[in-house]
């Protein structure tokens, strides 16, 4: 299926082409007509028939703006583009100025803490044995991860 926009009498149409088995054209035409398409042309072959449909291309804000921009004189187009560029530069400059002025009011990032120096009194000579570790009392029941916490 191929969809191609085209201009006919200042109205833009969208074209699409569909192939169907010969004899099933009526069903295909009815389906596409319910979707808002109208039959434009029909090309019958021995086994297949190619049907071309068209519909008015829906207009969007961007397409209307593009058409309006295209109708302007070249000098007017240049002035619109220059005005938009100046506006973008003003927005960027205002953001930079606001960021630098607000930078003094914001707290500074804290300095990274330095690791304490290890002295011989803080260095362990060997790891503790299991018997030396404090034994945690065992829980009688395991808590399930799926269980809701108590309120």
Automatic annotation (TrEMBL):
Ranges where the record places region Disordered: 107-151
Biased composition (Basic residues): 136-151
Protein name per its UniProtKB record: DUF4178 domain-containing protein
Species name: Blastococcus brunescens
